[in-house]
Protein backbone atom coordinates (compact mmCIF):
# COMPACT_ATOMS: atom_id res chain seq x y z
CA UNK A 1 0.00 0.00 0.00
CA UNK A 2 1.13 3.53 -0.65
CA UNK A 3 0.12 7.07 0.18
CA UNK A 4 2.02 9.30 -2.29
CA UNK A 5 1.37 13.00 -2.69
CA UNK A 6 -0.88 12.66 -5.71
CA UNK A 7 -4.41 14.00 -5.82
CA UNK A 8 -7.35 12.32 -7.51
CA UNK A 9 -7.48 15.07 -10.14
CA UNK A 10 -3.79 14.62 -10.94
CA UNK A 11 -4.28 10.86 -11.05
CA UNK A 12 -7.18 11.06 -13.52
CA UNK A 13 -5.21 13.52 -15.70
CA UNK A 14 -2.36 11.03 -15.90
CA UNK A 15 -4.79 8.27 -16.85
CA UNK A 16 -6.44 10.32 -19.61
CA UNK A 17 -3.05 11.40 -20.97
CA UNK A 18 -1.75 7.83 -21.04
CA UNK A 19 1.21 8.74 -18.82
CA UNK A 20 0.19 7.01 -15.59
CA UNK A 21 2.82 4.26 -15.94
CA UNK A 22 5.60 6.85 -16.11
CA UNK A 23 4.30 8.68 -13.05
CA UNK A 24 4.07 5.45 -11.08
CA UNK A 25 7.65 4.66 -12.01
CA UNK A 26 8.73 8.09 -10.72
CA UNK A 27 6.79 7.45 -7.52
CA UNK A 28 8.51 4.04 -7.24
CA UNK A 29 5.09 2.50 -6.82
CA UNK A 30 6.09 -1.04 -7.73
CA UNK A 31 8.85 -1.00 -5.12
CA UNK A 32 6.59 0.53 -2.49
CA UNK A 33 3.86 -2.02 -3.09
CA UNK A 34 6.20 -4.99 -2.78
CA UNK A 35 6.55 -6.47 0.68
CA UNK A 36 10.07 -5.66 1.83
CA UNK A 37 10.39 -7.78 4.95
CA UNK A 38 10.03 -11.15 3.25
CA UNK A 39 12.04 -13.99 4.77
CA UNK A 40 10.01 -17.05 3.75
CA UNK A 41 7.93 -18.12 0.80
CA UNK A 42 5.52 -20.92 -0.08
CA UNK A 43 5.36 -22.27 -3.63
CA UNK A 44 1.90 -21.75 -5.08
CA UNK A 45 2.21 -24.24 -7.96
CA UNK A 46 4.07 -27.45 -8.65
CA UNK A 47 7.37 -27.34 -10.51
CA UNK A 48 8.46 -23.78 -9.74
CA UNK A 49 11.90 -23.38 -11.34
CA UNK A 50 14.97 -22.09 -9.51
CA UNK A 51 17.26 -20.25 -11.94
CA UNK A 52 20.90 -19.27 -11.53
CA UNK A 53 19.97 -15.67 -12.42
CA UNK A 54 16.73 -13.60 -12.22
CA UNK A 55 15.70 -14.39 -15.79
CA UNK A 56 13.47 -16.97 -17.48
CA UNK A 57 16.28 -17.67 -19.97
CA UNK A 58 18.82 -18.47 -17.23
CA UNK A 59 19.83 -22.01 -16.34
CA UNK A 60 17.37 -24.02 -14.27
CA UNK A 61 19.08 -25.59 -11.27
CA UNK A 62 16.12 -26.99 -9.34
CA UNK A 63 12.33 -27.34 -9.27
CA UNK A 64 10.18 -26.87 -6.17
CA UNK A 65 7.00 -28.72 -5.32
CA UNK A 66 3.68 -27.06 -4.52
CA UNK A 67 3.46 -25.82 -0.92
CA UNK A 68 7.20 -26.24 -0.42
CA UNK A 69 8.37 -23.62 2.09
CA UNK A 70 11.69 -21.91 1.40
CA UNK A 71 13.91 -19.15 2.77
CA UNK A 72 13.89 -15.87 0.87
CA UNK A 73 17.44 -14.60 1.29
CA UNK A 74 17.20 -11.51 -0.95
CA UNK A 75 14.87 -9.68 -3.33
CA UNK A 76 16.03 -8.65 -6.80
CA UNK A 77 13.65 -5.93 -7.95
CA UNK A 78 15.14 -5.48 -11.41
CA UNK A 79 14.93 -8.99 -12.83
CA UNK A 80 13.16 -10.02 -15.99
CA UNK A 81 9.50 -8.99 -16.04
CA UNK A 82 7.14 -11.85 -15.26
CA UNK A 83 4.17 -9.68 -16.17
CA UNK A 84 3.90 -6.11 -17.42
CA UNK A 85 4.34 -4.69 -13.92
CA UNK A 86 6.34 -7.19 -11.89
CA UNK A 87 10.11 -7.64 -12.24
CA UNK A 88 10.73 -8.85 -8.67
CA UNK A 89 12.55 -12.14 -8.14
CA UNK A 90 13.27 -13.88 -4.87
CA UNK A 91 16.65 -15.32 -4.10
CA UNK A 92 15.87 -18.71 -2.57
CA UNK A 93 18.08 -20.31 0.08
CA UNK A 94 21.01 -18.28 -1.27
CA UNK A 95 21.15 -20.71 -4.20
CA UNK A 96 19.26 -19.11 -7.08
CA UNK A 97 16.20 -17.10 -8.12
CA UNK A 98 12.49 -17.76 -8.61
CA UNK A 99 9.97 -15.32 -10.05
CA UNK A 100 8.07 -13.70 -7.18
CA UNK A 101 4.65 -14.26 -8.77
CA UNK A 102 4.97 -17.99 -8.05
CA UNK A 103 5.99 -17.57 -4.41
CA UNK A 104 3.58 -16.48 -1.67
CA UNK A 105 5.32 -14.53 1.13
CA UNK A 106 4.59 -16.30 4.41
CA UNK A 107 5.64 -16.42 8.04
CA UNK A 108 5.63 -19.09 10.72
CA UNK A 109 3.99 -17.66 13.82
CA UNK A 110 2.93 -20.41 16.19
CA UNK A 111 0.12 -19.40 18.51
CA UNK A 112 -0.82 -20.09 22.11
CA UNK A 113 -4.41 -21.30 22.54
CA UNK A 114 -6.97 -18.63 23.29
CA UNK A 115 -9.95 -19.82 25.31
CA UNK A 116 -11.66 -16.39 25.41
CA UNK A 117 -13.85 -17.00 22.39
CA UNK A 118 -16.87 -14.78 21.71
CA UNK A 119 -20.18 -16.46 22.51
CA UNK A 120 -21.31 -16.45 18.88
CA UNK A 121 -17.90 -17.38 17.51
CA UNK A 122 -14.95 -15.35 16.31
CA UNK A 123 -12.93 -14.81 13.18
CA UNK A 124 -9.58 -16.62 13.04
CA UNK A 125 -6.57 -16.27 10.74
CA UNK A 126 -4.01 -18.91 9.73
CA UNK A 127 -0.51 -17.86 10.85
CA UNK A 128 1.69 -20.58 9.33
CA UNK A 129 2.29 -21.39 5.62
CA UNK A 130 -0.40 -24.08 5.55
CA UNK A 131 -2.23 -26.55 7.74
CA UNK A 132 -4.51 -29.50 7.00
CA UNK A 133 -7.83 -29.44 8.84
CA UNK A 134 -9.13 -32.60 10.52
CA UNK A 135 -12.61 -34.08 10.43
CA UNK A 136 -12.39 -34.77 14.17
CA UNK A 137 -10.26 -33.15 16.92
CA UNK A 138 -7.50 -35.75 16.94
CA UNK A 139 -3.98 -35.69 15.54
CA UNK A 140 -4.54 -38.88 13.53
CA UNK A 141 -8.08 -38.10 12.39
CA UNK A 142 -8.90 -38.02 8.69
CA UNK A 143 -7.84 -34.88 6.91
CA UNK A 144 -10.14 -32.38 5.26
CA UNK A 145 -8.86 -29.61 3.02
CA UNK A 146 -5.71 -27.51 3.37
CA UNK A 147 -5.77 -23.96 4.72
CA UNK A 148 -3.19 -21.36 3.77
CA UNK A 149 -1.41 -18.40 5.34
CA UNK A 150 -3.67 -15.43 6.14
CA UNK A 151 -6.85 -17.20 5.08
CA UNK A 152 -9.69 -16.50 7.51
CA UNK A 153 -12.26 -18.82 9.07
CA UNK A 154 -15.09 -18.71 11.60
CA UNK A 155 -14.15 -20.35 14.89
CA UNK A 156 -17.16 -21.70 16.75
CA UNK A 157 -15.58 -23.26 19.83
CA UNK A 158 -12.37 -24.43 21.45
CA UNK A 159 -11.98 -28.19 21.87
CA UNK A 160 -9.56 -29.86 24.28
CA UNK A 161 -8.78 -33.50 23.52
CA UNK A 162 -7.50 -34.60 26.90
CA UNK A 163 -6.41 -38.12 25.99
CA UNK A 164 -3.77 -36.74 23.60
CA UNK A 165 -3.36 -33.31 25.25
CA UNK A 166 -4.21 -31.41 22.06
CA UNK A 167 -6.21 -28.20 21.63
CA UNK A 168 -8.27 -27.40 18.56
CA UNK A 169 -10.39 -24.65 17.08
CA UNK A 170 -13.64 -25.90 15.57
CA UNK A 171 -14.35 -23.94 12.39
CA UNK A 172 -17.54 -23.88 10.35
CA UNK A 173 -17.66 -23.87 6.54
CA UNK A 174 -21.02 -22.39 5.54
CA UNK A 175 -20.55 -23.45 1.91
CA UNK A 176 -20.16 -27.13 2.82
CA UNK A 177 -22.22 -26.83 6.01
CA UNK A 178 -19.60 -28.83 7.85
CA UNK A 179 -17.34 -28.44 10.85
CA UNK A 180 -13.59 -28.96 10.72
CA UNK A 181 -10.82 -28.75 13.29
CA UNK A 182 -7.65 -26.64 13.18
CA UNK A 183 -4.78 -27.14 15.65
CA UNK A 184 -4.72 -24.07 17.87
CA UNK A 185 -1.02 -23.41 17.22
CA UNK A 186 -1.81 -22.64 13.55
CA UNK A 187 -4.46 -19.94 14.01
CA UNK A 188 -4.95 -16.71 15.90
CA UNK A 189 -8.27 -15.26 16.96
CA UNK A 190 -8.63 -11.79 15.44
CA UNK A 191 -9.41 -9.18 18.13
CA UNK A 192 -12.32 -6.82 17.61
CA UNK A 193 -9.94 -3.87 17.38
CA UNK A 194 -8.66 -5.15 14.03
CA UNK A 195 -12.17 -5.02 12.60
CA UNK A 196 -13.08 -1.44 13.43
CA UNK A 197 -13.73 0.88 10.47
CA UNK A 198 -10.90 3.03 9.10
CA UNK A 199 -11.34 6.76 8.42
CA UNK A 200 -14.82 6.59 9.90
CA UNK A 201 -14.74 10.37 10.35
CA UNK A 202 -14.67 10.82 6.55
CA UNK A 203 -18.19 10.95 5.03
CA UNK A 204 -18.84 7.96 2.82
CA UNK A 205 -19.64 10.27 -0.06
CA UNK A 206 -16.03 11.49 0.05
CA UNK A 207 -14.60 7.99 -0.36
CA UNK A 208 -14.06 6.38 -3.76
CA UNK A 209 -12.19 3.33 -5.08
CA UNK A 210 -10.82 3.52 -8.61
CA UNK A 211 -9.74 0.37 -10.50
CA UNK A 212 -7.62 0.91 -13.61
CA UNK A 213 -7.72 -2.40 -15.46
CA UNK A 214 -5.09 -1.36 -18.01
CA UNK A 215 -2.54 -0.72 -15.30
CA UNK A 216 -3.92 -3.38 -12.93
CA UNK A 217 -4.07 -0.75 -10.21
CA UNK A 218 -6.49 -0.14 -7.35
CA UNK A 219 -6.48 3.30 -5.74
CA UNK A 220 -8.64 4.80 -3.01
CA UNK A 221 -9.37 8.46 -2.39
CA UNK A 222 -10.76 10.55 0.45
CA UNK A 223 -11.93 13.61 -1.42
CA UNK A 224 -8.95 14.43 -3.64
CA UNK A 225 -6.38 12.79 -1.37
CA UNK A 226 -4.94 9.45 -2.45
CA UNK A 227 -4.85 7.13 0.58
CA UNK A 228 -4.27 3.72 -0.98
CA UNK A 229 -2.57 2.24 -4.06
CA UNK A 230 -2.02 -1.41 -4.87
CA UNK A 231 -1.37 -3.56 -7.91
CA UNK A 232 -4.12 -6.12 -8.41
CA UNK A 233 -5.08 -9.10 -10.53
CA UNK A 234 -8.43 -8.53 -12.19
CA UNK A 235 -10.47 -10.90 -14.33
CA UNK A 236 -8.72 -12.93 -17.04
CA UNK A 237 -9.94 -13.15 -20.64
CA UNK A 238 -13.38 -14.71 -20.65
CA UNK A 239 -14.06 -13.81 -17.03
CA UNK A 240 -13.29 -10.10 -17.15
CA UNK A 241 -13.99 -7.79 -14.23
CA UNK A 242 -17.02 -5.65 -15.15
CA UNK A 243 -16.52 -1.96 -15.82
CA UNK A 244 -18.72 0.86 -14.61
CA UNK A 245 -19.89 2.39 -11.33
CA UNK A 246 -20.64 0.17 -8.33
CA UNK A 247 -21.07 0.12 -4.54
CA UNK A 248 -19.48 -2.21 -1.99
CA UNK A 249 -22.92 -3.12 -0.69
CA UNK A 250 -22.27 -6.60 0.73
CA UNK A 251 -19.25 -7.82 2.66
CA UNK A 252 -17.88 -10.72 4.63
CA UNK A 253 -14.49 -11.31 6.27
CA UNK A 254 -14.32 -14.99 5.26
CA UNK A 255 -15.95 -16.60 2.24
CA UNK A 256 -15.61 -20.08 0.71
CA UNK A 257 -15.46 -19.20 -2.99
CA UNK A 258 -16.17 -21.91 -5.56
CA UNK A 259 -17.77 -22.39 -8.95
CA UNK A 260 -18.28 -26.11 -8.45
CA UNK A 261 -21.67 -27.06 -9.85
CA UNK A 262 -21.78 -23.95 -12.04
CA UNK A 263 -18.83 -24.55 -14.38
CA UNK A 264 -17.45 -27.44 -16.43
CA UNK A 265 -13.85 -26.16 -16.64
CA UNK A 266 -11.52 -23.81 -14.78
CA UNK A 267 -12.98 -25.05 -11.52
CA UNK A 268 -11.87 -23.27 -8.36
CA UNK A 269 -12.55 -24.18 -4.75
CA UNK A 270 -11.10 -21.71 -2.26
CA UNK A 271 -12.08 -21.92 1.43
CA UNK A 272 -11.46 -18.98 3.70
CA UNK A 273 -10.98 -16.20 1.14
CA UNK A 274 -10.29 -13.19 3.38
CA UNK A 275 -11.70 -9.67 3.51
CA UNK A 276 -14.36 -9.76 0.78
CA UNK A 277 -16.04 -6.52 -0.29
CA UNK A 278 -18.53 -7.40 -3.03
CA UNK A 279 -19.58 -4.79 -5.57
CA UNK A 280 -21.96 -6.84 -7.78
CA UNK A 281 -24.71 -9.37 -7.14
CA UNK A 282 -22.89 -12.14 -9.05
CA UNK A 283 -19.85 -12.45 -6.79
CA UNK A 284 -17.36 -9.83 -8.02
CA UNK A 285 -15.38 -8.58 -5.04
CA UNK A 286 -12.18 -7.10 -3.73
CA UNK A 287 -10.56 -9.80 -1.62
CA UNK A 288 -7.33 -11.19 -0.24
CA UNK A 289 -5.44 -13.89 -2.12
CA UNK A 290 -3.39 -16.86 -0.93
CA UNK A 291 -3.05 -18.87 -4.18
CA UNK A 292 -0.70 -16.56 -6.10
CA UNK A 293 1.54 -13.50 -5.77
CA UNK A 294 1.35 -12.44 -9.41
CA UNK A 295 -0.22 -8.99 -9.11
CA UNK A 296 -0.22 -7.01 -12.32
CA UNK A 297 -1.53 -9.92 -14.43
CA UNK A 298 -5.27 -10.36 -15.10
CA UNK A 299 -5.92 -13.90 -13.88
CA UNK A 300 -9.04 -14.01 -11.70
CA UNK A 301 -12.57 -15.20 -12.45
CA UNK A 302 -13.84 -11.61 -12.31
CA UNK A 303 -12.87 -10.52 -8.83
CA UNK A 304 -10.11 -8.06 -7.96
CA UNK A 305 -7.36 -10.08 -6.28
CA UNK A 306 -5.26 -8.20 -3.74
CA UNK A 307 -2.64 -9.13 -1.15
CA UNK A 308 -4.48 -9.99 2.05
CA UNK A 309 -3.27 -6.99 4.04
CA UNK A 310 -4.34 -4.65 1.23
CA UNK A 311 -7.76 -6.30 1.00
CA UNK A 312 -8.12 -5.97 4.76
CA UNK A 313 -7.51 -2.23 4.50
CA UNK A 314 -10.27 -1.83 1.90
CA UNK A 315 -12.60 -4.10 3.87
CA UNK A 316 -12.25 -1.88 6.93
CA UNK A 317 -12.19 1.39 4.98
CA UNK A 318 -15.35 0.76 2.95
CA UNK A 319 -18.95 0.75 4.07
CA UNK A 320 -21.11 -0.86 5.29
CA UNK A 321 -19.25 -1.63 8.49
CA UNK A 322 -19.52 -5.31 9.42
CA UNK A 323 -19.75 -5.94 13.20
CA UNK A 324 -17.10 -8.36 14.56
CA UNK A 325 -19.50 -11.26 15.14
CA UNK A 326 -21.33 -10.88 11.82
CA UNK A 327 -20.31 -13.35 9.12
CA UNK A 328 -21.93 -11.55 6.20
CA UNK A 329 -23.71 -8.21 5.76
CA UNK A 330 -25.94 -7.32 2.78
CA UNK A 331 -27.08 -3.69 2.41
CA UNK A 332 -28.40 -2.97 -1.10
CA UNK A 333 -28.15 0.70 -2.01
CA UNK A 334 -25.39 1.33 0.51
CA UNK A 335 -21.62 1.07 0.24
CA UNK A 336 -18.54 2.93 -0.89
CA UNK A 337 -18.39 4.05 -4.51
CA UNK A 338 -16.29 2.01 -6.94
CA UNK A 339 -15.28 3.12 -10.43
CA UNK A 340 -13.79 0.47 -12.76
CA UNK A 341 -12.51 1.30 -16.22
Structure description:
The protein has 341 residues and is mainly beta. It has three domains: 67 residues, Roll (SH3 type barrels), CATH 2.30.30; 69 residues, SH3 Domains (SH3 type barrels, Roll); 146 residues, L,D-transpeptidase catalytic domain-like, CATH 2.40.440. The strands form six sheets. The protein has a five-stranded antiparallel beta sheet with strand order 6-5-4-1-7, with no helix packed on it. The protein has a five-stranded antiparallel beta sheet with strand order 13-12-11-8-14, with no helix packed on it. The protein has four helices and 24 strands.
List the helices and strands and how they pair.
Blueprint: H1 8-17, H2 20-26, H3 29-33, E1 40-43, E2 48-51, E3 60-64, E4 69-76, E5 89-92, E6 96-99, E7 103-106, E8 122-126, E9 130-134, E10 143-148, E11 152-161, E12 166-173, E13 178-183, E14 187-189, E15 207-212, E16 217-222, E17 225-231, E18 244-247, E19 250-258, E20 269-278, E21 285-288, E22 304-306, H4 308-317, E23 329-330, E24 337-340
Query: Regarding quaternary structure, how should these chains be classified?
Result: single chain
- The N- and C-terminal alpha carbons lie at a distance of 21 Å
> In sequence order, what are the helices and strands, one letter per element?
HHHEEEEEEEEEEEEEEEEEEEEEEHEE
**What's the total number of strands?**
24
Order of strands, main sheet, comes to 6-5-4-1-7
Which architecture name of the largest domain does CATH use? Beta Barrel
| Mean pLDDT level | 91
Domain tally: 3
| CATH homologous group name of the largest domain | L,D-transpeptidase catalytic domain-like
Computed over alpha carbons, the radius of gyration is 20 Å
Proportion of residues in helical segments: under 10%
Contiguous helical run count = 4
Content of β-strand: 35-45%
The name CATH uses for the topology of the largest domain is L,D-transpeptidase catalytic domain-like
Structural class: mainly beta
Query: What coarse outline follows from CA principal-axis ratios?
Result: globular
CATH class category of the largest domain = Mainly Beta
Largest sheet: 5 strands, antiparallel
Unreliable stretches covering 5 or more consecutive residues: 25-34
Amino acid sequence: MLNPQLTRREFLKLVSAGTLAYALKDLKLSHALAATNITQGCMTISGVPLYDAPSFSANKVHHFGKDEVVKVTAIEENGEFGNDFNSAWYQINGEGYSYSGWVLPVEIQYQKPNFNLHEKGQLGEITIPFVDVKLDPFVYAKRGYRLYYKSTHWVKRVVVTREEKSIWYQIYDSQLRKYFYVPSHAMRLIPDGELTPLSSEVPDGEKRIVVDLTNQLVTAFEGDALVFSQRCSSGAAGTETPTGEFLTYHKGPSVHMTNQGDALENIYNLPGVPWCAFFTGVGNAFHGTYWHNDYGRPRSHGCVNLPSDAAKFLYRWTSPNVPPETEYLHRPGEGTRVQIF
